[in-house]
Design a protein that fits this description.
- The complex is a heterodimer of chains A (185) and B (280).
- Chain A has helices spanning 13-16, 36-47, 90-94, 109-118, 130-134, 174-179; strands at residues 5-8, 24-33, 60-62, 100-103, 121-124, 137-144, 153-167.
- Chain A has 185 residues and is α/β, with parallel strands linked by helices.
- Chain A has one domain (5-170): fumarase (Alpha-Beta Barrel).
- A five-stranded mixed beta barrel of chain A has the order 2-3-4-5-7.
- Chain B has two domains: 2-20 and 65-146, no CATH class; 149-273, 2-Layer Sandwich (60s Ribosomal Protein L30, Chain: A).
- In chain B, the strands form three sheets. A four-stranded mixed β-sheet of chain B has the order 4-2-5-10.
- In chain B, 48% of the residues are buried.
- Classes of the chains: A alpha/beta (185), B alpha/beta (280).
- At the A-B interface, helix 5, strand 7 and helix 6 of A face helix 3 of B.
Chain lengths: 185, 280
């Protein structure tokens, strides 16, 4: 593996546009969790002309619903969920200024077009490495929709959160690049 | 007649949910290690290292392997000479699931109604329970916590007899290629062949209860398992970001079917193939 690139939040468009599919990164700073129900709630709020509970400008969204924290721990197990379920809401959310997304799995062409337009990077964390990933989370604070339980919007303070750039802001796709050399069907 | 009180069943199920969430079965761990030895992609090796380390941390620290602690699926074998006293068996199992998920700090991921308001039941119940009546006076409980990243990529195909073995392989591979990187590979693949549409789906789940290192007792189906595994490992899907370790095992179960039918169902499980079993 090539050397890992260190990223500190907030993530500007300028920095996002330097990242390339296949880059291995370590993210530090604050990232924000949101998944299915929160995406639905936020896009519905926007449709009603309401403000969102947080300002997403230059922020990174993490598609996550953690297990409850055991006493003495900041968070439970906290790996990525499947990003594709958020695709229907993603172009609207990227219009709000998000510059990075962390999840797992493929995205639609509409999402990739929106990423290119706004200079957004899509990172993958290793699916199912949830206990390992929890070691990089130092604090978990629910900010909005507490009634959604694990689906609440929360701030996560992270140090050296491990991820890989899977789709960069030019639309290069590491899922496709990574599979091609090993496809022997 | 032998008697078991429902309180014992509740306590066992609670414990089994926690164990399944924290402790990856040894055969799955060994299969991951074996995959790491043969993986050709450097990125794939890095991903497998993280997955293996993750399962070690989960075991050492009693943490859930994955944040998706799943929907609880339970396979019961109830001896027909056994008497269950003190309450209803289904209620006792669901009480055990609720207790295990709350005490074990597992994520509650079940909504009471699927389409219109999707309100979380807050204790991961109800479990999906399959019951088989067998000889004897024992109660066997097998359980898995089924994550939905992989469940969402599962599928079924109603083939006809003329489709034959090649048709079955194509149906399985179509589902696997459509799933691609999404179900948290390396996958464990359960295939159900025969029965009716629902029976094939059931068999594909039941297949996941067999350890990854045990092949079907029928040599033709054992051979099919090997051929499918080889095909899946040639897709390039690999451990999420490409490579040669796309699946750890393919387990096929089969059942009698109609003269006109050849149903094929595929349940995809992620690498966190959680399993616990007890005989009371």
């Amino acid at each position: 593996m090539a050397e890992k690139i260190r990223i500190t939040t907030p993530l500007t468009e300028e920095v996002s546009r330097t990242l390339r599919a296949g880059d291995s990164v370590l993210i530090s700073g604050t990232i924000f969790s949101a998944r299915d129900a929160a995406h639905k709630a936020m896009t519905e709020a926007l449709a009603r002309g309401e403000e969102l509970p947080i300002d997403w400008t230059n922020q990174i969204v993490y598609y996550l619903g953690p297990t409850p924290a055991k006493p003495g721990n900041p968070i439970g197990s906290c790996g990525p969920t499947t990003s594709g379920r958020m695709d229907a809401y993603t172009p609207t959310m990227l219009d709000q200024g998000i510059k990075g997304m962390i999840g797992k799995g493929s995205r639609t062409p509409e999402v990739i077009e929106s990423m290119k337009k706004h200079g957004v990077t899509y990172f993958a964390a290793v699916g199912g490495a949830a206990a390992l990933i929890s070691k990089s989370v130092k604090k978990y604070t629910v900010l909005a929709y507490p009634e959604l339980g694990p689906e609440a919007v929360a701030a996560l303070e992270v140090v050296d959160f491990p991820a890989i750039v899977v789709i960069d802001s030019e639309g290069n796709n590491f899922y496709e690049m990574g599979q091609a050399p090993y496809r022997k069907l | 007649m032998r008697t078991i009180n429902v309180e014992q069943i509740t306590a066992e199920v609670a414990q089994m949910c926690k164990e399944a969430a924290y402790y990856l079965p040894k055969d799955v761990y060994e299969a991951l290690k074996k995959g790491r030895e043969t993986e050709e992609s450097p990125v794939g090796c890095d991903v497998l290292d993280q997955i293996i380390r993750n399962s070690e941390i989960a075991r050492e620290e009693d943490r859930p392997i994955c944040q998706d602690t799943g929907m609880t699926i339970i396979f019961l074998e109830v001896g027909q000479d056994l008497h269950i006293e003190g309450g209803n068996l289904t209620d006792a199992i669901n009480a055990g699931v609720a207790k295990g998920y709350i005490e074990g700090y597992l994520r509650k991921s079940v909504v009471a109604e699927p389409l219109f308001n999707r309100v979380n039941t807050q204790n991961n119940t109800p479990a999906i329970i399959y019951t088989k009546i067998v000889d004897g006076d024992k109660l066997k409980i097998e359980l898995t916590l089924k994550g939905f990243g992989s469940e969402n990529k599962s599928g079924i195909k109603m083939l006809v007899p003329a489709d034959g073995v090649e048709g079955v392989k194509k149906a399985v591979m179509d589902i696997i290629l459509h799933a691609s990187c999404n179900p948290c590979p390396p996958m464990v693949v359960g295939v159900g062949i025969g029965g009716t549409m629902d029976q094939a789906a059931y068999l594909s789940k039941r297949a996941l209860m067999r350890p990854t290192n045990v092949r079907n007792a029928h040599p033709d189906y054992a051979n099919l398992e090997g051929e499918l595994l080889e095909l899946i490992n040639k897709t390039g899907i690999g451990p999420q970001l490409g490579g040669t370790t796309s699946a750890l095992a393919v387990n096929v179960e089969w059942g009698p079917t109609h003269i006109a039918g050849l149903p094929v169902a595929v349940t995809i499980c992620c690498h966190a193939m959680r399993h616990s079993e007890r005989t009371l």
